[in-house]
Structures are given as structure tokens and as C-alpha cells.
Design goal:
15% strand; Arc Repressor Mutant, subunit A; three-stranded antiparallel β-sheet; 397 residues
Length: 397
């Protein structure tokens, strides 16, 4: 059984998040630092994929090829994926916090309650209690995958995750050195009982990678008892050069009219903020107006997703005299739009990367980068790509 950081300092100096509105401390969820870099990335991808339906759905799905792509290993290496999923199911998360009524609550759960691979799809679930904690942004800081991909060290990613949750307070608070060793997954190593070794091999390299790679800059400080280092904390600031990698926290976006319209349409909070951050308010509003002007739209959120991605615009002329082959092409494009829109943001990003990797011709790559799935130069390859993912979708096209 892995060793977990279960020491909760009641004064908030060890693993606690401060709720300034009610002046209460809410302990962070502690997860073993023994997760490998691959497992830690996998855990974050699975969480992002499930985040919008954590408490409304018991199980979650993501195709295995997409999952492999997002965490950076061979999409045919199912043995590695199985091993990583097994590791998450065997890893424990522990929390100790005040609930909504002010009652102290302690809990423990495996990171995944189960996972299975079948037909090229990964199905997985969280325990209801852990899903409830992970869905609360006051308790758990969702890690941006654009930042996660840049990490090459498991210790650096573990340090980033444990510091990022304190970015608003500017400091992690003091961690006893034993607690810090557990967070980094080296508590069982006699070598790292020496602060000199811990600092040289773990702290300095991890700090350097966090500062170079992520949207925060951290600086360690130590506290001694006599001549022995007893505690460590990390001071945290935004990294102005890389802050664009992180999404807006919603404080400003949620007050904008476009946000209200998106939420009224049924768009999730996270996705609404992501769209505004990526495209800007004017562009999003223009596409919402476009969707509102279309008749017979059964799923406006899905249609809006495609409109934003592919830059849908009103047709300047009637389509009644379009040649049959053009009509067929239009029907095929609509199928591809619908298939792409049905994918999660994580899956869509992986789909584009996977398809780009199949293109050797620079002109074909440039056309796809410019036009995405609507690329005429890559029409045949695009259809073949989507037919591989959804063979029955094109039966009528």
C-alpha cells in the first residue's frame, strides 16, 4: 500500500486551502506522490474528460487511442495503459475537511473505483464521495493540460500540483519535511532523509522545471530546529510569461453578457469560460447569433461547438441549384462536423494531433492547420480518419 500525506495541520500550515469568505480551512485532497509522471498525467486527463459530469454520471468514457495520445505514449501500447490504470485504482486519495454544515469530515477512496478497456474505449468511474470533492473548485484545482504536457519530471509535476492549489494565497504554508517527502513520493528512501540530498536531487530540479514550464513561479523557504531543516514552504507568484496557458478563473468572464447567454443555452461553466478565453466575446456572440438564426437545430450546444471551431457563416446564396456531388460533399462535411462536435475538448485536441501526424505533405498539413476538418485538400483522408472512428456514420453519405 502506498504511503500517503495524511497529516493535516489544523492551523492551515500543512495542506490546507483558505476560504476567505468564511475564514475556514479546507484541507486539500492528498494523493501519493508515488504516482509516475505517466500516471499523474493520465489521472488529470481522465478528470478533465469527466469534469462536467462528475456528479451527474456514474461512469465516463474516452476512447483509448485519444487517451494514449493525450498522455504522450504509443496509442497501440495497451499494456502500458492497463498498467497505469491499475496504478490509479490502487492509489488512495484522502481528505479531512469541514463540510457545508461545518462538520468535520474524513474520507478515503481509491483514485478510480474501476476502469475497463473494451472495443477501443476506456470506461472508468470515481467513487461518489471522491467525485463530489473533485467537482468542488474550492477543494481541488483542475490542472490545465496545456501546462501538464510540458512537464518531463514526475517530481516537478507533483510539486506544481501541490503548489498550484495555493496560488491565491501566495504560499503553501509550512510543510513538515516528512510530509513534503511523502508528497514527492520519496518517503521510503533513506537517501532522501538527508536534506542535502533531497534539495539537490528533488527540490532544486523540480523548482527549476516548474518555473520554466508552468504558469507559476515558486521559491522554497526552509525553517530549522537547531541546525536541522524541519519544515519547507513555497512562495508562489504568477508567471507573467506563461500565464496565457491557464484559463481565466471566471471572476471577470462570469459578469459578461456572453457568459449569461452561454449558460442559458446549456453550456457548462468551464466550457463557457474556455470559449470566451480562446475566441473572445465578439466572436462567440457572433456564432451564437448565427446558431440562433438556423432552423431545426436540435442540439444548439453541439451546433455552437462546431460553429466556433469551423467558423460557420451564413451562406450568401440559395443552395437549391447546387450540383449533386456538391450536395454529397456538404452532407459529408455535416457528418464530420457532428462527429467532431460530439467529442470532448480533450478528445478533439487529440483527434487533430493524430490526424496531423498522418500527413507528410507540407501543403496538406498547412491546409488542415488552416481549415481543420473542412480542409478540401485532405477531404478523402479526413473521411477515412472519421470512418475509422465511426464506421456507421457515413452509411448514408
Amino acid at each position: 500500500m502506498p504511503d500517503f500525506s495524511d497529516d493535516i495541520d489544523k492551523d492551515g500550515l500543512s495542506g490546507a486551502l483558505r476560504r476567505s469568505a468564511v475564514k475556514k480551512h479546507v484541507a486539500a485532497i492528498h494523493v501519493s506522490g508515488k504516482l509516475t509522471l505517466l500516471q499523474r498525467k493520465l489521472s488529470n486527463v481522465l478528470l478533465l474528460n469527466a469534469y462536467d459530469t462528475l456528479t451527474s454520471q456514474a461512469t465516463h468514457l474516452i476512447d483509448a487511442r485519444t487517451l494514449c495520445m493525450m498522455i504522450g505514449y504509443n496509442s497501440n501500447d495497451m499494456d502500458t495503459l492497463k498498467g497505469s490504470l491499475r496504478g490509479l485504482a490502487e492509489t488512495v486519495a484522502e481528505w479531512d475537511m469541514l463540510d457545508a454544515e461545518g462538520e468535520q469530515e474524513w474520507g478515503v477512496s481509491s483514485l478510480l473505483s474501476y476502469a475497463k478497456l473494451k472495443g477501443g474505449v476506456c470506461e472508468y468511474a470515481y467513487s461518489p464521495a471522491l467525485a463530489d470533492k473533485l467537482s468542488d473548485p474550492k477543494v481541488f484545482a483542475l490542472i490545465n493540460l496545456n501546462i501538464q504536457r510540458r512537464f518531463t519530471s514526475g517530481h516537478a509535476l507533483a510539486l506544481y500540483e501541490n503548489c498550484y492549489r495555493f496560488v491565491r494565497t501566495g504560499s503553501t504554508g509550512w510543510w513538515p519535511l516528512d510530509t513534503f517527502r511523502r508528497l514527492m513520493g520519496v518517503a521510503d528512501s533513506a537517501y532522501y532523509e538527508s536534506y542535502k540530498h533531497l534539495n539537490a536531487k528533488i527540490i532544486k530540479p523540480a523548482v527549476a522545471e516548474v518555473n520554466k514550464t508552468s504558469n507559476i513561479v515558486i521559491r522554497p523557504e526552509i525553517r530549522k530546529r537547531g541546525r536541522t531543516v524541519s519544515d519547507i514552504r513555497f512562495l508562489i507568484e504568477d508567471n507573467p510569461q506563461l500565464a496565457i496557458l491557464d484559463l481565466d478563473d471566471g471572476a471577470g468572464v462570469r459578469n459578461a453578457p456572453v457568459y449569461g447567454r452561454l449558460r442559458a443555452l446549456g453550456v457548462s461553466d468551464r466550457l463557457a469560460r474556455q470559449w470566451v478565453a480562446e475566441h473572445g466575446e465578439d466572436y462567440v456572440l457572433a456564432k451564437m447569433d448565427y446558431v440562433a438564426g438556423q432552423s431545426g437545430v436540435q442540439n444548439p450546444v453541439r451546433y455552437l461547438t462546431a460553429a466556433l471551431k469551423e467558423d460557420f457563416k451564413a451562406e450568401p446564396a440559395s443552395q437549391t441549384d447546387v450540383a449533386p456531388q456538391i450536395k454529397a460533399r456538404a452532407a459529408q462535411l455535416q457528418i464530420i462536423r457532428d462527429l467532431a462536435a460530439a467529442r470532448s475538448p480533450t478528445q478533439r485536441d487529440a483527434d487533430r494531433r493524430l490526424f496531423l501526424n498522418t500527413l507528410d505533405d507540407p501543403a496538406a498539413r498547412a491546409d488542415f492547420e488552416r481549415h481543420g476538418w473542412m480542409s478540401a485538400l485532405n477531404a478523402a483522408n479526413i473521411r477515412a480518419f472519421w470512418e475509422d472512428l465511426a464506421p456507421s456514420a457515413f452509411e448514408v453519405a
